Amino acid sequence: MENHNNNNNNNNNSGHNHSHNLIFGKQTELYFAILCGIFLVTGFTIEKLTDLPAWASLISYMVSYFFGGYFIFIEALKKIPKGQFDIDFLMIAAAIAAAYIGSWTEGALLLFLFSLGHALEHYAMNKAKKSIEALSDLSPKTALLKNGNQLIETPIENLKIGDIIVVKPNTKIAADGVIISGNSSINQAPITGESMPVDKTAIATLDNLPEFKHIDKIHIAFTGTINGDSTIEVHVLKLSQDSTVARLIKMVSEVETQKSPTQRLTKKFEKWYVPIVIIVVGLLCFAYLIIDETFNESLYRAITVLVAASPCALAISTPSAVLSGIARAAQKGVLIKGGKALEDLGSITTIAFDKTGTLTEGKPKLTNVIALNNFDENEFLQIVLEVESLSNHPLAKAIAKAIEKLHNIRFKGIAKNIEAIQGKGITASYNNAKVLIGNLKLMLDETITVEDSVIKKMDSLLQHGHTVMLVALKNEVIGIISVMDTPRQTAESTLKRLKAIGIKRMIMLTGDHQNVGDAIAKQIGLTEAKGHLLPEDKVEAIKDLLATDGKIAMVGDGVNDAPAMALSTVSVAMGAAGSDVALETADVALMSDKIESLPFVIGLSRASKRIIKENIFISLGVVAILVPVTILGLTNIGVAVVFHEGSTIMVVLNALRLLGYKDHL
Q1: Cβ neighbour number for residue 522 with a 10 Å cutoff
Q2: Which entry of 86, 344, 354, 485 is annotated as an active-site residue?
Q3: How far apart are the C-alpha atoms of 473 and 450, rounded to whole Å?
Q4: pLDDT tens digit string along 585-602?
């Protein structure tokens, strides 16, 4: 059966895919297998339980042969001109030889079980593929295009960048774009796997619009996601063939052609194994020259060995598990690119994390507001808000936003004459008095006295990973403010779950100060943190980890840490739904921005690896037992057929278990 996995990728050539012109459509192969079984039972009943002439049962067996051998024969015929003798060829040879020596029952039983195994294999492959192809049903076929005051229903292929589409309540969004009117709660589960709807708002202006991946996710709409209860208008930013969902489908379908290490190994093994089987079986046909038996008895033994030695179960053991694993991940908004990534991820015990936006929120948060020397806290907050609101620096914006939101203080526009002092902070005038906000160096340069107790307080906050600023008014320090990129709420529990499933080392690589790294590492339970790293230093850190730990995974956003991720054994990109780079380069892409899906993916990879091992053990185990038993003539062809085909069916069913995989922790 090994050839079918290639054929499925190769324009779907395999027998069961000739469905367009087949009598029972897509299910023809399965129905043929069942008919083969019916005529086998009929022939057997006529032969054993009636007095009808021998030709009656023979006709039934012949019809059974036709239905059972039809697809297998087509497959074998395609390969022979290329000099490829595979399992289909072995099975047809065994069935013909069985008929030649008069063992029609066994020959028909062989074809019945083999064709049933075939049909089941294709069913398993199709089931896994269908759950992948279901992704393509995500995007609607048409969109409501806004043209002046008119709404025109337009096929999504005809949408152009810059078009405006209207999305009615509870309908699917037809293009990737930015929301320009209306607020809604959007169900992004089909793309990102997030279980809760996400609140989205219209962007204030389309002027100086950044690249798609840099637009705040709160304004972004993805194709195939489902709008909530409000009408929204979306400014189209991507053509339908470039949408996140279109690329996701394209990549998942390409994924199937990427063979896993185990698959490549079994392919190599089969390449040598099948010719050896043919030679051994050929020699066994002439056993009657050496031992005391007839030619027919030797032939019977040879056919039994041929059936026993065919590596059907081995051929299907890995591809069926890989495809089921990838399909299961896709259902949960995770794209695993091929069997190699799936298997590698299953054997990893060391993970390196990027800090910003992976383990942390990626946004600075106001953590402390401390008024000193009995200065009124509300007035202190008002001063900071007025001055920081004038600055364009991301930290200043975050501070101003937090003061307004958390402390309910309104901006009055009192401050003016803001001036940024590179690497130190800012100065401004507030009610005609000079205000300074910045680091210790800024204060000392302006000859402002900073007491030891204040410096001690600053150092303590710095040790815990905060970025600290002093605030001075009229040449006197009036307070301290600190900000910090805080850990994600789910980071600590996720790392605990990773530890529980056997991840031994978890290292954070960050460009931030070592103190910041250490503080966050301690807070969320990382093994270690490496700070002060530039992108090229991260690459060196990954090289060191590969040297000591063999295989490592790197988790990041796939953009600034792309070089380090490319070097790791398995790269995992988070929030890939918005980033082209991450989708293209990562081995595993978490479509949502949620780190908590990581234990699920690693757990699934481990389950896939375990099932691949079980399948190989079952398939090789059955062959290892059957071959010597059949060579010694200790069993008949019927028993060999049942055990051999039974193992194939068992392997396929075992792999299908992955489609129902759940995260147990």
Answers
A1: 12
A2: 354
A3: 13
A4: 678 888 877 888 899 999
